[in-house]
């Protein structure tokens, strides 16, 4: 799990740099020019920082401006602690606060949750918070738009960026493959997204970062873990399990989890209905 861990973070902090700055920003222009258009996943638009993780301000494709806004992060970033295997948290009160970022990575302001709509570490690794403000109110007050959750899984070879609000760092690479099952300690995740390296060597604190498509700008997954020490199926050392039950350990590999499954459980009023036919989220 890519939670912030102080001992690791102290050593890593010296290597942190911001990415996504264009050449036009690096040198002064001789005359006024239109603002540079950043590539999808190339800045911190819609990104959130948590106390121990990263996250993002997200919307569904069908969301409207008057809907309460949502924050996406990992299940293991839930403020009540890591949900056990098979545990699902739904519609629980929360008062957690989040810092939203401007495209440059500077702090735009704070928003607060009033509910945990859904959290689990089973099949996937997600927490979805409902905020006290609507998308329109946040846009008006802080100037921060939401990222749209993709309605489909990413394909192998798709360009991607892991955008960390905690570190204010952007990692870019592509999707290597989809892993049948990923086992880490007592948790099992399904259809995990494996990153093609180099480029996405994520570290503690990047947990909950959105995986942003560099072609569409939509959120195609959520970053959550990696095999740090070469261990076999242990905490911070997930192993890959194929359909035949064969186990593979890939030290240094990093992974994210599916988020499009939310759509399979979405009601007409954009609430999470785990009893909906075809719902893929753990119940």
From TrEMBL:
Q: Does the keyword Protease apply?
A: yes
Work out whether the entry's keyword set contains Transmembrane helix.
no
Q: SUPFAM superfamilies annotated for this entry?
A: Trypsin-like serine proteases
Q: One MF term in GO for this entry? A: peptidase activity
Leader sequence range is 1-26
- InterPro entries assigned: Peptidase_S1_PA (IPR009003), Peptidase_S1_PA_chymotrypsin (IPR043504)
The UniProt transmembrane annotation reads none
Which key words are in the record? Answer: Hydrolase, Protease, Signal
Instruction: Tell me the Gene Ontology biological-process terms attached to this UniProt entry.
Output: proteolysis
Pfam families of this UniProt entry? Trypsin_2
Q: What is this protein called?
A: Serine protease
């Amino acid at each position: 799990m890519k939670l912030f861990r102080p001992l690791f973070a102290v050593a890593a902090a010296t290597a942190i740099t911001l990415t996504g700055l264009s050449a036009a920003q690096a040198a002064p222009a001789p005359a006024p020019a239109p603002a540079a258009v950043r590539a999808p996943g190339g800045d911190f638009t819609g990104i959130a920082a948590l106390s121990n993780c990263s996250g993002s301000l997200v919307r569904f494709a069908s969301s409207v401006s008057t809907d309460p806004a949502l924050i996406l992060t990992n299940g293991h970033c839930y403020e009540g602690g890591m949900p056990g295997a098979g545990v699902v948290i739904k519609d629980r009160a929360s008062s957690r606060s989040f810092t939203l970022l401007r495209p440059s990575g500077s702090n735009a302001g704070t928003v607060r949750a009033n509910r945990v709509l859904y959290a689990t570490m089973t099949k996937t690794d997600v927490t979805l918070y409902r905020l006290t403000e609507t998308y329109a109110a946040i846009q008006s007050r802080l100037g921060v738009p939401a990222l749209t959750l993709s309605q489909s899984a990413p394909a192998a070879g798709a360009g991607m960026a892991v955008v960390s609000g905690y570190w204010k760092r952007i990692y870019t690479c592509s999707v290597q493959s989809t892993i049948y099952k990923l086992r880490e300690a007592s948790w099992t995740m399904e259809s995990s997204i494996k990153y093609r390296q180099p480029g996405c060597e994520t570290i503690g604190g990047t947990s909950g970062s959105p995986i942003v498509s560099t072609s569409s700008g939509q959120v195609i997954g959520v970053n959550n873990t990696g095999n740090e020490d070469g261990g076999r199926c242990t905490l911070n050392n997930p192993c890959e399990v194929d359909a035949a039950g064969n186990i593979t350990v890939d030290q240094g590999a990093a992974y994210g989890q599916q988020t499009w499954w939310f759509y399979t459980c979405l009601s007409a009023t954009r609430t999470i209905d785990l009893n909906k036919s075809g719902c893929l989220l753990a119940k």
